[in-house]
Specification:
twelve-stranded antiparallel barrel, globular, Porin, 47% strand
Length: 276
C-alpha cells in the first residue's frame, strides 16, 4: 500500500497526482514533475494568495523506511487489511505566513472592515500593522492507511517534536475512487482537529505582538473540515493530465483571530504531469 498522503494537497513539494505508471512498481524511486497553473487562497489579512506553477514529486520506498516529499517514515505494519506508519513531517500551517505584507493603516471604519476587530478612536498618525511571523514545526506521529472496495481511509495523529507550538493534530480523510481505463476520479472528505497549543501558536496574537491595530487574541482548539477532488487521464506510460481542487474551512477559533480575513481556504491546480 502506498504510504503517500494527500492531506496537504497544495503544500509546496507535495504531489498532486494519483496517477500510476507501471515502471513505478519496479523501482524504489518515484520521480515526477508537474507543470500547470494553480492557486491556494491565503486566509490571513493583507496577504497574497499562493501560486503553484511547478510541482516536484520525489519519493523513495524501501522495505520499511521511506521518504515521500516532505514526509519520512517507517512502516510498522503492512498487510492486506492496513498499513501503519511512524511518520515525521513539517507542519503546513506556516506556509500562509510567507506571503504577508506590512502596511500603514489608520484606525477607523476601513481597518475594522479589513481585519475583523472592534475599532477604537481614530489616531492622528497611521499605525504599522504587521502580521506576526511564525516558524515551521517538525512533527512526529503515527498514521493508519486502509483501502478496499469500500474506499480509502487515512487516520493520523501528529505531535510537535521541535518545541515550536507543543501541540498536536488528529487528521481523518475518507475517499472513494473510480478508475476506468485511463481515467481516475477520487473525491474525499474529512477533518483535522487542532489542539489549543497548535491553534494558538499559528492563529493567536501574543501580548508582545499586540498593538492598537492588532488586539491580543488567544485561540483554542478547533476542527477544520475539508473536501477534495482529484481527477486524471493517463495519456501515455509517463504523461498524464490532471486537475485537483480542495476546500478547507478554518475552525471558529482560528477564524475569530484578528489576523484572519477569510475562514474559507480554496485551492486548485490543473496541468500536465510527467513521471520518470
Amino acid at each position: 500500500m502506498n504510504a503517500a498522503s494527500v492531506a496537504s494537497l497544495f503544500l509546496v513539494g507535495v504531489s498532486l497526482f494519483g496517477v500510476a505508471a507501471d515502471a513505478s512498481a519496479q523501482s524504489p524511486w518515484r520521480l515526477g514533475v508537474a507543470l500547470g497553473h494553480g492557486v491556494r487562497t491565503n486566509p490571513l489579512i493583507q496577504s497574497d494568495d499562493i501560486p503553484i506553477a511547478l510541482d516536484l514529486d520525489i519519493a523513495w520506498f524501501g522495505e520499511r523506511f521511506y521518504f515521500d516529499n516532505f514526509d519520512a517514515g517507517f512502516t510498522v505494519i503492512d498487510n492486506d487489511a492496513m498499513t501503519v506508519n511512524a511518520v515525521g513531517r513539517i507542519n503546513s500551517d506556516r506556509v500562509f505566513f510567507g506571503k504577508t505584507d506590512t502596511r500603514l493603516v489608520t484606525i477607523g471604519a476601513a481597518i475594522g472592515q479589513a481585519t475583523n476587530f472592534a475599532v477604537g478612536a481614530p489616531l492622528a498618525q497611521p499605525t504599522e500593522l504587521t502580521v506576526p511571523d511564525r516558524d515551521y514545526a517538525v512533527e512526529l506521529g503515527i498514521e493508519m492507511l486502509a483501502d478496499g472496495r469500500w474506499g480509502q481511509l487515512q487516520l493520523a495523529a501528529h505531535q510537535d517534536a521541535s518545541g515550536t507550538h507543543d501541540g498536536y493534530e488528529v487528521f481523518l480523510d475518507y475517499g472513494y475512487g473510480w478508475r476506468r481505463q485511463r481515467w481516475s476520479v477520487e473525491p474525499s472528505l474529512g477533518f483535522a482537529y487542532k489542539s489549543d497549543e497548535l491553534n494558538d501558536y499559528y492563529w493567536g496574537v501574543r501580548p508582545d505582538e499586540a498593538s492598537a491595530a492588532l488586539p491580543e487574541y488567544q485561540a483554542g482548539s478547533g476542527v477544520n473540515p475539508h473536501l477534495k477532488l482529484a481527477a486524471s487521464y493517463q495519456l501515455t506510460r509517463h504523461w498524464a493530465v490532471a486537475v485537483s481542487a480542495e476546500y478547507e474551512r478554518l475552525s471558529t477559533e482560528a477564524a475569530a483571530s484578528p489576523i484572519v480575513a477569510d475562514r474559507d481556504v480554496v485551492g486548485y491546480f490543473a496541468g500536465a504531469h510527467y513521471r520518470f
